[in-house]
Amino acid sequence: MKKLEDYVISIPDFPKPGIIFRDITGILEDADGLKLAIDSLQKELEGLDFDVIAGTESRGFIFGMPLAYNLHKPFVPIRKKGKLPREVVRQSYDLEYGSATIEMHKDALKPGQKVVLVDDLIATGGTIEAAAKLVEQLGGEVVKMLFVMELAGLKGRERLSRYDISSAIVYEGK
After folding, report:
1. Which of 59, 90, 136, 159 is flagged as catalytic?
2. pLDDT score at 103
3. What is the helix (H) or strand (E) element at residue 75, kind and residue range?
4. 29 a catalytic residue
5. Are strands 75-80 and 52-56 parallel, antiparallel or unpaired?
6. Could you say which of 3.40.50.2020, 3.30.430.20, 3.40.50.9100, 3.40.50.2300 is the CATH number of the domain covering 48-171?
7. What is the pTM of this model?
8. Do 56 and 128 form a contact (C-beta atoms < 8 A)?
């Protein structure tokens, strides 16, 4: 039986020399890989008390939606700036070369709700940290951060040490 790692396509020297890009489309393009990814993430939620699953655009949607569906939980999208139609809260954060802003509907959470954040990858942790700040701004509590892959060499887990983090695959490098 294949492991989840077997479905990830590693592309050397992309986007620049010395970097190994970990491509999740190999997981998505194979029914067994996709099932294994969702099952692996869902296993991390067993016994966890939570109310809502929230995912960051766009790959957090891909992995968060099936979890929400399977577990009969609502799903809250966290989107790039300017994509949501109602009143929003927003959070800016730094990227390697610049900054970005994400938003969530202001009425997406009720104070006290327990939230699981989902994304495909934790690298430096900037995006998911901004997502956690949005949840907390609305009075929610982040009870779990869930990722398909983790690039441990970029130390995102350390940056987010106050949160409960699970990754289905951990790569030691960058």
Report:
1. 59
2. 98
3. strand 75-80
4. no
5. parallel
6. 3.40.50.2020
7. 0.96
8. yes
